[in-house]
Write a structure and sequence with these properties.
Layout lengths: L3 E4 L2 E4 L4 E7 L8 E7 L6 E7 L4 E3 L7 E5 L4 E6 L8 E8 L5 E2 L3 E6 L1
Parallel strand pairs: 2-11
Antiparallel strand pairs: 1-3, 3-8, 4-5, 4-9, 5-6, 7-8, 9-10, 9-11
Amino acid sequence: QVQLVESGGGLVQAGGSLRLSCAASERILKFNIRGWYYQAPGQQRELVASIDSIGTTKYADSVKGRFTISRDNANTVYLQMNSLKPEDTGVYYCKIEWAGPDYWGQGTQVTVSS
């Protein structure tokens, strides 16, 4: 079973930046998609950004131009978040989709103060 561990969340003022990391316990060699999801209190989890094995990226309209997803050659995916807004506040989860079962991380809290 692949374990995903997120880090990098915290408290930041509006306009500030954070960089989230998601480290996988092992490398999946088959085609896969790594995604970052966001969940506000009382809301459903929704996709923020994703990147696949060949580097194709997707972003939610609300974060285009502010957030950047990337992955290194090992097992880690990053989410660089700039120009943060109070509405970005929530728990951020990473996920991996591949031919096997999906895996989720435990989440990391991001709080943006106004």
